[in-house]
Amino acid sequence: MTEIGIVAVGGYNEMGRNMTAVIIGEDIIILDMGLRLDRVQIHEDVEIDKMHSLELIEMGAIPDDTIMKEINGTVRAIVCTHGHLDHIGAIPKLAHRYNAPIISTPYTTALIKQQIEAERKFEVCNRVIPLNAGGTYHVTEDISIEFINVQHSIIDCVLAAVHTPIGAVLYACDFKLDRTPTMGEAPDFERLKTLGKEGVIAMIVESTNAGRSGKTPSEQIAKDMVRDVLLGTEESEVGMVITTFASHIPRLKAIIEAAGEMGRIPVLLGRSMERYVGAARDLGYLELPSNVEMHGQRKDVDRALKRIIQEGKNKYLPIVTGHQGEPGSILVRIANGETPYTIEPGDRVIFSANVIPSPMTQANRYALETKLKMRGARIYDNVHVSGHAYREDHWELLRMVNPEHVIPAHGDMEMHGHYIEMAEDAGYVLGDTVHLLRNGEVLYIEE
Fold this sequence. Notes:
Elements: E1 3-10, E2 19-24, E3 27-31, H1 53-58, E4 74-80, H2 85-88, H3 91-94, E5 102-104, H4 106-118, E6 128-130, E7 136-138, E8 144-150, E9 157-164, E10 167-172, H5 189-198, E11 200-206, H6 219-231, E12 240-244, H7 249-262, E13 265-269, H8 271-282, E14 293-295, H9 298-311, E15 316-320, H10 330-335, E16 348-352, H11 359-374, E17 378-380, H12 391-401, E18 405-409, H13 413-425, E19 442-446
Parallel strand pairs: 3-4, 4-5, 5-6, 10-11, 11-18, 12-15, 12-16, 13-14, 13-15, 16-17
Antiparallel strand pairs: 1-2, 1-19, 2-3, 7-8, 8-9, 9-10
C-alpha cells in the first residue's frame, strides 16, 4: 500500500455536519458523523428522532454519505472526537449503514448512547466502545486509533491519530491549546511532538477560527469573567438569569461555583441541561453541590420558575437554555412572557456564549435581546471565550506535528482560506501539500 485516501463527506463547505473518511487499502475509518444545527432549527433540544436520513440529507442537515457507496473497501470503525452535535448528531441516522463499532471517549460515548436511545426511525445496533484519552484501539493488524488529550468547549475531547502502515493521519477537529483548563488535563503536547517525529502523512484540521489573530484565551479567563459579572456589583438583590451552552460543563461548573459565592441556589433549566450535566455527574466528571436544582420537562421548569418568583429572585440563579434565541428555549419563553418568571427593569441577563455566525441565529438572538430590553433587562453579552483555536494556536500545532500534507476542514471557504494562508506562511504549497477540499471530493495522497 502506497497511498491513503481522504474523503470529504461533510463539514468542508460549512460549519457543522462533520464527517471524513480515511481509506487505507481495503479498509476505511470514518471520523465523526455530525449534524448541521442551523438546518434543523438551531436548538440544543432539537427533535429529529422521527425524521428519515434522506429527508435530513436533502435539508443539508446531515452529511450526504451516499458518496461512500462509490468507495471500494469496508468501514472498520466510526471514530468520534467529542460530544458536540455537529460531530455526533448524525450517528442515529447513518451509523446503522456501517457494520462497524463506534469508538469515542467515555463522556462522548454516554451522549451517543442517549442519542441512539432517543432515535425513533432507525435501529442502531453498532457496538459503542469507550476509549480514554491516551488510549489506543487496534482496528485491524495494520490500523489502530490513538486518542490524544486536548481541550475544547466540552469535556473529554481528543485528537484522533489513525495509525497506518505508512504513517499517521491526525484528525484535529475541534481543539484549543489551553494550558490552564478549569477541568481536565492540558493538551498532551509531549505526545503531539513525538507523533510529529514519528511521521504524520496528513493532518485534517478545523479552520473555524483560523482567521482570528493571536491565541484563544484559556477557559480560566472565562471563569474569571463569569465571576466578575455575577459578583462584581452593588446591585446584588436584582434578578439574574444566565445562559450558556448546555454541553459546556467547565463553564456551568464556574457558574454554579459563583452562585455559591453569591449565596444563591443554582437552578439548571432545560432538557439539554439535564442531559449533558446529568451524564457528566453520573460519570464522575462533575460534582454538584447538594443545593443545585435541575429541571428538564416544561411543567417542572415552570413550577421552579414560579417558586423562584414567590420566594424571591435574589435567592436563586436560573441557568437556562436559549443563548442563540432558539424558539421554544427557556430564555425565549421568559422574554415572551410565557413563563411565571417575569423580567423587571434592572434585572440582569447574562449571555456566557457567543452568537453563532449564521443569519438565522443572529436574527433570533437580535429578536430575543430586543424583547428582553423592552422588559427592562440589562444585557451582559459575550461573557465567553471560544473553544476553537485561533491563528497562532493553529501555527503552533502545525509546527509541532509537522505533517507532510494538511487539509482544512470544519468550516466554510473563507475559514479554509485563512487556514491556507497561515499554512503557506509555514511553507506549505496550495494544491501540493495543503489541500482545499469540498464536500463529496476525494484526495489521494501517495507516499
